[in-house]
User: Fold these one by one.
Assistant:
Number 1:
Amino acid sequence: MGIKTKFVDSDILVIGGGFGGCGAAYESRYWGRDLNIVLVEKANIERSGAVAHGLSAINCYMGMRWNENQPEDHVRYARGDLLGIVREDIVYDNARHVDSTVHKFEEWGLPIMKDEKTGHYLREGKWQIMIHGESYKPIIAEAARKAASEVYNRIMVTHLLMDKTKPNRVAGAVGFSVRSGDFYVFRAKAVIVGAGGASHIYRPRAIGEGTGRTWYAPWSSASAYGLLIPTGAKMTQMENRIVLARFKDGYGPVGAWFLLLKSVATNAYGEQYESKWLEHTKAIVGEKYTNSQPFPTCLRNHAMLEEMKAGNGPIYMQTQRVLDTAEKEEIGWEDFLDMTIGQAVVWASQNIDPREKPSELITSEPYVMGSHATCSGAWASGPEDCAPDDYQWGYNRMTTVEGLFGAGDTMGGAPHKFSSGSFTEGRLAGKSAVRYVRDLKGDQPQLDDNEVDSLKQAVFKPLENYKLGRNEIVAGTVSPSYLLPLHGLQRLEKLMDEYVGGYSTFYVTSKPLLDRGLELLAMLREDLDRLGAEDLHQLQRAWELHHRVLTAESVTRHTLFREETRWPGYYYRADHPKLDDTNWHVFTASEYDAKTGDWRMSKLPVHHIIK
């Protein structure tokens, strides 16, 4: 193959230029002034990651300087929202450091709204502060760019590399330039994965030319998990997918409307419906969790879903009841124009004036992520001063693979980080990675040249498949010789939606459905060897599909393993319809053996360190 191979050496390799990766690069430089820190991003860090469009609020801020909240409060909140199952040590660690991160953002030029009476940051809710966030990501990216020794944009990382002398130690990564087609081999003493979680593993509600209109970033292609799983890293809570209540069709956020503007959601008859489903919900999860304050997010979804199934939809946000001043109207529009412009377009296209008529709400398709309100991701060692013994085996935020760290969507068990918490977790991972590299001294990882050569062949195989088979097209884009990435993606979305609890089944699944889903996933994984890519853009899509399919299988196996309905409103096990604290007040865990294709499932204990 006439493809150039470029080698890049680093002490610390950061994969993913979102908030987690930017935080990792920034903090690695602070503690490792003399280290070679390389950041790799498949797009461009100026506008990449979940905050690419902008953001109207920072959703994780304690306000300790004003005694508004303490880290212990945030642990209680996250624990209640996830119905009892979070890594309290990691949630606490993020919470106690996040305020300093937000203060840095303000120093770097992020405009944060202030309460004119108190001078405090303007609160949208208990944990959220309002910002003018159109340029949020470029401001943070500038700090990361200045901190890194080198930033490689437009590099799709496809695989992590393992040390040939120590099988459970990371040694770097490989990928390719989506512009030049060069093959990149990144050699590293430590690797921090800050890649994105998974959108588009489930069929989205938006179809046709609107398929890219999802809530979570459509370019988040599960690399946070697709890179880690083949290394054998222990993963946790992959069944804990998230479903969002959002404005219909545009996926506009509802937080500012509920929390700041004090709007309410009703059924089609103008009735507030949540309370009437309370007893029904208690029968599923028990009184302990329905008494959580605030009411858990998944249970709010559950009430909405039950109301729609009862025939009382559509569900409406009563915007016209709260937009009684010009200031509030401005806030309502800016909430979308900061971050979800498509929702403002929906209003315009459907003749909706929010001052005069309500707007529909709906639940989204599921997403898999570790940075928002759920906690899928890698099982990681916790902070030395507060992690229980069995949560701690090495450096803070290091996975079960030596030298492999994570932040943001990559980290399991630690929900409610959002943008500021993901950057904070990147900082914590960066600090630990520097210490790990210092402790290595001369014992640095070694690459297996045969593995690198084999991966190079595999990475570019879709181009060869297309080149050889393109003249065999029988109709349109259908070929007997290869599968296009889009066709593979649509196949994945359909089977996950129908068998693993997507919106078309009202998020309901069962053992027979999950078993059938695994059969179909196995067939799809076999066919991935015949992916065809016309160009480098399609080659990127091919490897995004690889990451999504492997992640989807992990989600399916975890959902099958947890024999209860822990989070009604996110998904339901029809064959185990109730929460079961006796047997399942645990983390689920999996380890994948890439050589044999076997999955090992297990339970991990939940320790409550905050009263």
Number 2:
Amino acid sequence: MNDRILTTRQGRPVSDNQSLRSVGERGPATLENYQFIEKITHFDRERIPERVVHARGTGAHGWFEAYGKIGDEPASRYTRAKVLTQTGVKTPVFVRFSTVAGAKESPETARDPRGFAVKLKTVDGNWDLVGNNLKVFFIRDAIKFPDMIHAFKPDPVSNRQETWRFYDFVMHHPESLHMVTWLKSPWGVPANYREMEGSGVNTYKLVNDEGVAHLVKFHWQPKQGVRNLTSPEAEAIQAKDVGHATRDLYDAIERGDYPEWEFCVQIMADDDHPELDFDPLDDTKRWPEDQFPLLPVGRMVLDRNPDNFFAEVEQAAFGTGVLVDGIDFSDDKMLQGRTLSYSDTQRYRVGPNYLQLPINAPQQGLRTHTNQRDGQMAYYVDGGGENKHVNYEPSSMGGLAEAPKPAKGYHQWVEGHLGRYQTSRTQDDYKQAGVRYRTFDDREREDLINNLVSDMMECPEHIALRMVWHFWHCDEDYGRRVAAGAGIDLQKAIALPPLPGKPAPGDRLAAPTYTSGKAEEPVRADAAE
């Protein structure tokens, strides 16, 4: 076999490393994605004991209180989740803030997305909302996540973070340009954790008592306002303090200056939305706030520091699959992949009984009742039924029974070919990045250009040329300024052809298309009967 051909660990050649298999272009991923499962579960186990990503972080306790409304309407119109519909109830929360790519003792002034993970210990069990400070991400298919992090982490030979590795990955993924434009501006270095937005990033669904679903995006808006740092400002802080954001949060809470965020949602009907230039399930895109406004839902206050950093911050474990009734999954391919990866990571990193730890267990008085037993470091037996001899279901001998089913369940219709698909709606891969560039103020735009110029000067010519080509298609001034600052031949960059197998900037695929480049097959007449 050609030793340059990518294979699985079982030795099977990998002919498609770009997309999960899904039911149709926008349908759910399937459990038999063996290649992805092998890849992501190995990635989850690459480091011990610190996290592979989000290793550097801090956290605090507090509470969340719902307004009982979503905007001006009763929250119950959209969801049956009690944590969002019941007023006057303070739900305990634990929030962990973090950087992404750096190791446990890396500086908090790093230009890096910031993790914003919230564990809400609701009356119906835990709800984890695991997101970032920026409202978009680099990739839209979870099968690329290990590749992305490997490119952003240190070189496996030199153990140095190399600029060319980052852009060598990014230049093949136009959907990354939006995130890069945010990250290389001052928004890539929040001043601290208190003056920072949070976002669930992925698209979820709200489900009401009638079993009707709406697409939703979740956002945390800081009452303290938003403040970011330019590169020179960050360097000045880092020269004196590599943990300034941890100190700032701890000191603020100790002096009684409790940070507060307003919880907001954006809502969209649960359908394909062909009128949009982007797929609302694509986490590399923002939902324009003039079309889908931020609607207030509640507020969160952090008012208590951890008593033990290791027990409460390091052992805190979050998962995107940890939802409560009334909040559901969408077919966002990043969300579906994260839902396996995050909880799998915790079982490896902390252990199979990580949910028995106080920081991860549901709120006091809400003891779990499962038939799960034993495993490494089990220190109590989950609550069972009347008969302790029965640890299975169903049983006629006093075991646990299923909870009552909702009067009207949510039943998504799914139909389509099973395959690996490209995203056909790619018009906004460049458009939203260009809009973001034009809406930055002069200070933000200047810092963005300076950072990219420095980066391009560290890249091989073919990578720098392709990146300038990308930036120019986002906004001509954007590409021109990067090229001029880095001494790159703009005309040579502009003359590059589109990326192989991808639509030209601003275009979309004419129809659902597999990653092989072949159009989706029509449905057979006999299959439609």
Number 3:
Amino acid sequence: MALLSACSNTGPLLIGTVRDAYTGEVISQANVRIATQSLSTDTNGSFQTQRWRSSDTLTISAPDYEPLSLPLASQPQVAQSSSMTMTLETSLRPNTLRGMVRDTYTGTPIAGAELSITLNVSNTLVVSSTVEGGYRFSGVPEEFSITIHAPDYAPHTETLSRTTNLDVSLRPNVLSGQVTDRFSGQPVAGATVRVGDAQATTDAEGRYRVTDIVADEQTLEISADGYAPLSEEIGQTTVLDSVLRPDTLRGRLVDQETGEPIANATIIATPNLPGTAVAYTQIQSSSDGSFTLKGVPEQGYIQVLSPGYAKEVLEISPGNLPEEIGLERFVVKALYVTAAVARKPTLIQEYIDLIDATELNTIVIDIKSDLRDDLGLVYYDSQVPLVKELGLSYDYIDIEPLLAQLKEKGIYTIARIQLFSHDNVLSDAHPEWSIRLKETGEVYADYPGPGIRYAYLDPTNRNVWDYNIQLGIEAALLGFDEVNYDYIRFPDWYGDAASFRDTLLFSEPIDPVENPDRMYEVLTDFMQLAHRAVNEAGAYMSIDVFGRVTLGPSMTIAQDIGRMGAYCDYIAPMAYPSLWGPGAFGLDSPVDQPYEVLAAANASGIEQIKDRYARLRPWLQDHTDPWAYKVVKYGPEEVRAQIEASEQFPEIDGWMLYDSANVYRGAFNGAVRPEK
């Protein structure tokens, strides 16, 4: 505000002070012009003069400020005042903006950053930062927005008011580096490098450059075929070299003796032994035995399970896994013992001694009870959750010391599990998981003799599947080399297929008349799940089938080894000579001709599973069937005949002797050779 009164060249004293419009601070060395007179403000921002007229225009300017022109006549007080001293307070608005542009991470100046302020549609102020990172704008309005761009940095925009100094930190938005192989040190080309949504691909030298990384993204993720994924924090850096660990084993399986490629195998990687697979692959009908196993851990074991061969176990050695793995042929020669025998060390020792002294090399042990009063009870302290929940196990067999003893002697171990029949305790615990009679809702059961009851579980019920698959996994992790599922079938039926459909109730509609394929699929669907689960736990899986299935698919049991052969390692037909009637295979009396029966059944079974994944391994009769059409006491001669009938086929991988009473008149009396 000015209070002026003068009308001559010399008159009242005009005293003025110039201040900063934003801060109120005085401005020294401001230039003040009145007519031809030029003044400068002192350190107090003041000036004074008597040489002025009311018609003059006061002009004030200072570096970094918007100039001010003030006509004195426009001041209403000039005409009214008669004072001898006039005081004028003025302010200049700053119109410059200066500051520094620095790197957020390092604090170092950024040269060449482009800064822009848009004044209007057609007028934009643009400057660049200097080598020292500094910048300066002139002609800046009171309010404005500034935008800063610099290569490899996230742009910055800010709206300012009454501001003359602005230091800006720009966040780097790029990351570059090189990706190499941990073991070879060679660059990894074609790797995908990702930070949030921003990504790049490594070049032939393993180098990458990710741009436009958004704020708050601090995780670098790298993936490449054949390598374990890598995730690491970026921190405040723009250069990050990374090392990838190979996690893919590419190899070839061959027969150790012949060098021929192996067509069928499951390859897994486990962190421990025993342990469950963290990586799994299966080859089927491979012409060259080649495989690719992805997801191999840094430490652990590679396990190879191929039907007809001994399991191969290789410790994972960083950067040094073989590209070719040779497998050794293995032929099972087994003896079966019941759970009741296995629970008593003094009893089972007799069978261990027989195996130890002869060509026998395998023992099959029931892990469920075979006794009528607790049929299906798990005979060791099972930790399967459902078994524990239902209280369906008892600590009869001291299983771990027994398995350790057998392993020490080099005996191959098979855990036999009754599946859909011979498991009364599970059926009684969950009747709704059983096959039931449509008319009464009662559980369906076989009654083969006085006081004998075999409840039948529902093959379509997934709870039954889960229960038995978990037992199979547990058996494998306990150390069994193989899991054998018996009673993997629907009930045999002596009426017609229509009465089967109309009498029995399942969890889903089952009709052997209109939809027999579904019955076959139920069994193979179970097998597909079980096979992978058991293999992933490091064990082979076998199934038992009726002997007649060697001739072709059979209803109503729904066993078809042509289909089933895709989902297990071994198929074990029970082609006992005493079960065939006169005329079978063109034989007058099959029970008297064990060699001919097994030779014919084996030949037919081999043809049924030709080119399938599974191999054939028959059960052989070492017992006398009192209910056969003709009772023939089986001993060493009859058992040996069956062995020789099986061993003549190179497509057959051994045999298993069966006697439900575990007497074995053949095996204990010379049917098996004394040498190993």
